[in-house]
Description:
seven-stranded mixed sheet, alpha/beta, four-stranded mixed sheet
Amino acid sequence: MDFDTLLTAQLDALKQAGNYRYFAELERQSGKFPRAAHHHPDGKRDVTVWCSNDYLGMGQHPDVIEAMCAAVRRTGTGAGGTRNISGTNHDHLLLEAELADLHGKEAALLFTSGYVSNWATLSTLGARLPNAVILSDAKNHASMIEGIRHSRAEKVIWRHNDPEDLDRRLAALPANATKIVAFESVYSMDGDIAPIAEILDVAERHSAMTYLDEVHAVGMYGPRGGGVAEREGLMDRLTIIEGTLGKAFGVVGGYITGSHAMCDFIRSFASGFIFTTALPPAVAAAARASIRHLKASDAERLAQRHQVARLRAGLDAAGIPHMRNDSHIVPVLIKDPVKTRMLSDYLMSEWGIYVQPINYPTVPKGTERLRFTPSPLHTDADIDHLVRALSHLWTQCALSHAVA
């Protein structure tokens, strides 16, 4: 059997639908964010990155870079294996203490990514807690969906950000169910923010465990960067707060925070923790430096919010449709996968602007978009250049100027 023919047929179908993902070859350059070198057949040139999840540029912060370099010199490059066998390092424990403090919890547990922390924790809770039922927001991330599916627990999907629907669905469950309400604070594609207090009111009324994914909010919100739950004074009411080190903190890795018993339970039973090599100690040291900086400094968050507001004002003035939300994410709807890809290509080739098209299955068909994430290191001139480019392409491609 010609297996490559089977594979190619499905890849060709993906391309014909406009949903095939082409990767631009970029090289991040220390000290130059949001600039990156774009490698292409004709050579290499600088482009401005507009879709990075390094929201605050902390991956380029000198304190974070020095912490990682110093830790490599001190410990070497790798962790030495899984934490269960040979890889628990002093730097891991220091970082977990830092994260527990950030979220006002007793303990924290590190994972190799935010995807793994969601997948491993939800799958373990659903599989091992008696009569578990996981109630999942309709727009939860793929990592949460996969974790719930893998757990084989009963799953109930409630309408996105709708506490009343959650209330009805919790009320319908049997009295002996172990109820787990899983949701996010900032939803990364639309940029909308969950009504956390109202969701907690409902969950507490039904004695449900609460699991909040703050991956797009940690570092970004709250007086110390603890996320939306910190900003709203709700961290103590949540059973588990999950986050990432790979977005606003500028490194890589994921984590959960909660009670000592909760973190020990996941540590002891989650295959996604037990059987994978630990984060390098240098990564942990860099993440700790980033978290400590953002606990004390609000400058990056304030500058980032200013640039988000400036971009939105520029888009409004130019009549470019963008989704309204209260977060740092600026989605510009195109609603067609081929046009989204085309605009992305034009912005890169003609204007030196890199923004990756967001197509199905990341977003539903018909909601394809360009997703912009201004950072404090994007200048006013960068924003003006982006708005000019979009205005030119909107006219050239005859796209609607009605603001969403």
